Each structure stands twice: as C-alpha cells, then as structure tokens.
C-alpha cells in the first residue's frame, strides 16, 4: 500500500483526532535535542496545536539521554501535571511503566497494526502498550567515501579490517599535513552509549550481550575479552584519547568537522552530515557495523524512540492526540527524509525516502541483525545493570584493568545485582 491510503487516513485522522470539547488544553512535551530532533519535534507539535486549537509547551531533554531518565522519574514520582508527553528510549519502558497510560485502549487497532510488530512488542509490558513507536535505530557505521576511494580501500567487513584501514588512512592523511585526522570516533564516555558500543563489539565477536534474554550472566567469556582488547588498542591509536569522554554529539562533531575516517553513530547522522551546507555533503557512506569474526552477525545495538503519555496528564485525551499526530505517516515520512528510520512498514517502500536516506535500504536487515540490550529481563533495574557494564568497560579502555579483569568484575557486580532480584 498503501502509503497513499495511509497518508489520506492520516489527514482525516488529523481532523478527527481532536474531538474534545472541554476547551483548549496546554500540552507539555519533552523533545530530544540531538541533531535535527528539536526542530522536528517542535514544528510538528506546533502544527498539531494549530490544527486542534490547543497549545503546546516544548521542554528540551538533556542532550545526553541518560540524564533524562532520572529527571522523568523525579517528575513522575511527584505525580507532576507539568509533563504530559515524553520522548522515551526503549530501555526505559520497564522503569517508567507504572506512570504511563496504556495506549492500547486509546489508539485504534488499524493504526497500531501499520507499525512493525517488533516495535510494538518493544513498548508492550504485561499486555499494556506503554508508548507509541516513533523511530527505530541500530548502531551504524558512517565513513568517508571520498577517502576510501582515494586510497583504494573497500568497506571493511571486520573490526580488524576497519582498524587497519583507519590506521592506514590516518597515517597517510597526517603525512600529507592533515594533522587533526583520526581513524575512528565513537562513544567512549562512561554512559549508556558506551554500553551500546561495547555490546556491538562483543556480540559481533560471538560473545553474547552481557546478560542472556533468560537472565543468565554471560559477560565474561573469551570472545568478549578479545573484543575489548581490540577496542583498547584504538585509544590513542586510531581514536583520540578524548573518545573516552565522547557521547553521540561529541563524536559526531569530530566526524563532521572532517577529522575522522570512520564514525559509529545512529541513523540521524545521515541527515546531519548530508544537510545543505554540511562540509561532508556527498562524501559520506554508510554501512552495517563490521563483524568480529567470520560467521557472526553485524550486531548494531537496537535502540528506539517512543512517545509515552503520563498518567498524571491533566488532559490525557489531548496528550494522546498529540502522540498520534507525531507518530503518523506524514510526520514519520518528514523525519525519515532527515535520517530517522520509521516504525511504519509502508514507508520502507517509499521511493522518495529511499532516494534521500540510503541507510533505509539495509535498515530492515540491520534491525533483524541487531543486538538488544538486556533491558527486558532486568526491567526497572536496567539502568543499574548498564552502569555496571559501562563503568567496567570504561576501566578497561582507560587502561586501569585488562579486559579479563574488567569483565570478571562486571560479571561479579551483575551477579550481586541479580541476587538482590536485579
Ligand atoms: C540513542 C538510542 C538509544 C540509546 C542512546 C544511547 O538515543 O536511540 O536507544 O540508549 O542513543 O546514548
């Protein structure tokens, strides 16, 4: 289909979404501020307000998403009516579940079934749909197509090949006077983003996901040790020492300034690096993350952006109306043109989107091959679990411990958490 049909339905929905007659509502929404997010979220929310006669108040999430969760928890624990709609990371659903409206009863079934089933499953707990899928993500590798061509290097298939190519091009470029050039920038700060990066190295080496879906702790194994030992060699080699303090935006800044050959990030970097006026316009390629060893999967970390409604919203119906507007086909298409992968199946057949956003060509496969963080099995404790993982990995990367010591401590710390019931 159906896209035409979908778009028509959506336009109709726009007109009937708001049928409340209790007077105009003011809806307060938390929007992400990374990349083009804030502008996209704000303009769409304003359009909804105009169409429905309501008003909307935009709140900026902290640039580092990890800092948003404690803020949400604090506001929701106080049953604050100051927050109606929340942009959520898929790994927070367990932690925020008691405070979120079950949308299954609020959104028509035919609207829900247009989304990927996996995206709906991801925000469903105990039969309740706690948030609407908005965009999906998996870690991807961006690279300087122009430099790979210049030096006759193919897209690397394995992390070892990436290491070699990055080193080679970095050395050549520096010898040619480009002193700021690095081989590879990624997210090495001790935060959620590092858990994602580490999961990708380890899973693509066949070393699992730290905790298996059944709750078994698998963090310490030879493949994981090998993966971390390789990553450790990058620090001060193909990656600047500063990478140990980079998050998504910090590392993107280095890449988009033209100072790195490879860059691991989420899909949105296609939009920012290929925007009008970008120094890298036409010079960037995107590919699935490398594998560790032959026969393993690429294993991009699975992430997703969702929209939830607070149970303490003064006007739940108006808040739901905004969420439906933001997640509809017209909006998801507008976002897809800027690099955000939709959760609506039909948009993956849309020629205009595919022409503008090449990463969508392998996106479906990338999502199928992605590796999930152990957030379902550890539920509300996932944040603590992830903290044990990224601290341990950070210690290894910064040379405080070798990979075997580091992972053995991660494993012990996770066992302790598990004994307490996560
Ligand atoms: C992105 C992902 C999210 C992840 C975060 C880590 O926002 O969508 O799932 O937790 O990055 O920094």
Task: Provide a compact summary of the structure.
The chain is α/β, with parallel strands linked by helices and about 425 residues long. It has two domains: about 5-130 and about 300-370, 3-Layer(aba) Sandwich (D-Maltodextrin-Binding Protein, domain 2), CATH 3.40.190; about 140-300 and about 375-420, 3-Layer(aba) Sandwich (D-Maltodextrin-Binding Protein, domain 2). The protein has helices at about 5-15, 35-50, 70-75, 95, 110, 115-120, 145-150, 160-175, 190-205, 220-235, 250-255, 270-275, 315-325, 330-335, 350-355, 360-370, 375-380, 380-395, 405-420; strands at about 25-30, 55-60, 85-90, 125, 130, 130-140, 140-145, 180-185, 260-265, 285, 300-310.
Question: Care to describe what's here?
Answer:
This protein has 422 residues and is an alpha/beta fold. Helix content is 45%, strand content 13%. The protein has 19 helices and eleven strands. The protein has helices spanning 3-17, 37-52, 68-77, 93-96, 109-112, 117-122, 145-150, 159-175, 192-204, 222-234, 248-256, 268-273, 316-326, 329-336, 351-356, 360-368, 375-378, 382-397, 403-419; strands at 26-31, 55-60, 85-89, 124-125, 128-129, 132-138, 140-144, 182-185, 260-265, 284-287, 302-309. It has a five-stranded mixed sheet. Strands 8-9-7-10 form a four-stranded mixed sheet. A two-stranded antiparallel ribbon has the order 4-5. Helix 2 (37-52) links the parallel strand 1 and strand 2 (55-60). The model is unreliable at 1-16 (pLDDT under 50). Bound molecules: alpha-D-glucopyranose. Alpha-D-glucopyranose binds at residues 65, 89-91, 137, 192-193, 196, 248, 266, 303, 305.
């Amino acid at each position: 289909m159906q896209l035409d049909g979908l778009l028509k339905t959506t336009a109709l929905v726009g007109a009937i979404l708001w049928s409340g007659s209790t007077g105009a509502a003011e809806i307060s929404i938390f929007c992400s501020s990374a990349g083009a997010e804030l502008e996209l979220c704000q303009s769409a929310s304003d359009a909804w307000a105009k169409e429905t006669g309501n008003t909307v108040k935009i709140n900026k999430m902290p640039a580092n998403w990890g800092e948003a969760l404690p803020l949400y928890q604090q506001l929701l624990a106080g049953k604050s009516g100051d927050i109606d709609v929340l942009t959520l990371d898929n790994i927070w659903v367990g932690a925020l579940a008691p405070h979120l409206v079950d949308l299954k009863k609020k959104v028509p079934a035919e609207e829900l079934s247009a989304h990927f089933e996996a995206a709906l499953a991801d925000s469903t707990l105990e039969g309740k749909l706690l948030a609407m899928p908005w965009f999906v993500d998996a870690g991807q590798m961006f690279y300087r197509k122009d430099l790979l061509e210049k030096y006759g290097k193919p897209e690397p298939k394995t992390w070892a090949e990436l290491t070699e190519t990055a080193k080679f091009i970095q050395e050549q470029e520096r010898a040619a006077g480009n002193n700021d050039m690095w081989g590879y920038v990624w997210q090495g700060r001790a935060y959620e983003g590092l858990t994602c990066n580490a999961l990708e190295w380890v899973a693509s080496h066949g070393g699992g996901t730290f905790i298996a879906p059944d709750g078994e702790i698998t963090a310490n194994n030879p493949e994981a040790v090998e993966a971390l030992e390789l990553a450790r060699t990058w620090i001060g080699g193909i990656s600047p020492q500063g990478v140990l303090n980079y998050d998504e935006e910090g590392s993107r800044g280095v890449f988009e300034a033209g100072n790195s050959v490879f860059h691991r990030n989420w899909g949105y970097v296609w939009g920012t690096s290929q925007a009008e006026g970008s120094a890298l316009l036409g010079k960037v390629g995107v590919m699935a993350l490398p594998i560790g060893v032959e026969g393993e999967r690429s294993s991009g970390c699975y992430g997703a952006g969702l929209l939830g409604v607070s149970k303490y919203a003064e006007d739940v119906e108006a808040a739901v109306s905004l969420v439906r507007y933001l997640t509809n086909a017209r909006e998801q298409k507008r976002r897809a043109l800027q690099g955000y992968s939709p959760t609506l199946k039909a948009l993956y057949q849309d020629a205009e989107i595919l022409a503008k956003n090449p990463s969508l060509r392998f996106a479906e496969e990338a999502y199928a091959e992605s590796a999930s963080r152990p957030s379902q099995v550890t539920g509300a404790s996932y944040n603590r679990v992830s903290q044990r993982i990224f601290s341990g990995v950070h210690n290894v990367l910064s040379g405080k411990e070798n990979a075997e010591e580091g992972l053995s401590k991660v494993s012990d710390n996770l066992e302790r958490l598990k004994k307490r019931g996560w």
